[in-house]
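go over whats below:
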Amino acid sequence: MTSDMAGTRTLITGAANGIGLRTAREIVARGGAVAIADIDESAGVAAAAELSEGGGTAVFVPLDVTDDESWARALPAALEGLGGLTGLVNNAGIEISDLFVDLDPASMRRILDVNVLGTALGIKHAFRAMRPEGEAGGGGAVVNIASVAATIAFPGIAAYSASKSAVERLTKVAAAESGRLGYGVRVNTVCPGLVPNAMGGQLAVDMERLGLFPSVDAAVGAVVALTPSGRLATEDDIARGVVFLLSEESAFVNGVTLSVDGAMGM
C-alpha cells in the first residue's frame, strides 16, 4: 500500500460506518491518522479501536454536526488527539424519501440541518483551525460529500437532492473565500453514485414504498441502467476519490466537483 497520506491528520464526520468508515480505513492504510467524528458514540469508539489495532492512529470525537458548540468542542479534541489537523471530510448526511404531495416539512428541515448546515459548520471550523493564525495553522484540505442526486432528477428525493446541490455550491464559495483570504485550505466536492450500503439499500426500499418502482430490484436496475459504467458504486470507489482530494497529489485542485458515479450524472 502506498504511503501518500503519511503525516496527514484528518477528521471525518459520520465516520462510525459506511463511506466515512471506509475512507478512514483507506487513510490509515496509507499512513495517515484519523479522527472518527460521529453522533453514535458506541459505534464511533468501536471504529476508532478497530483502526488502531493494526498500529494505525485513530481517535473518536463525539460530534453533532448540526450544533456549532459541538463543533467548537470537536475540533480542539481532534487536534489534541491527532497532534494537528490537515484535513476534514464532511461526510455525515441523511436521506429521507418523500413524494412532493406528501412532503413533510420537519423531515426536510432535518435533511437541510444535517446535510447543509452541518457541512457549512464543518467548513467554518476547519478554516478557523487550519488558516495561518489557527491552532493547526498549516493549511490543508476539506472534502465535502455531495451526491449524484445533486446533478440528476430522480423522483422521490427532492429534499435530499436540494441539500446536495447546496453542498456543491457551498464548496465553490468556500474555495473562493479561502483563496482570497490566504487560508491555504483547498475545498472540493465528491459526488458519489448510488452505493449498495445501508443508506443506498434503504433508498431502494423507499422507491418501492412510494410506488415509483414495482420492486427494490426494479429501482436498483433503473439506477444501473442510468449508469454508463453499468454498475453501482462501491465504498472503495468513493473512499479513493476522497483520499485523492485530501492528498498532495491534488495540490492544485480546488473548488471542483469530482463525480464518482460511473458517468451517471454527466
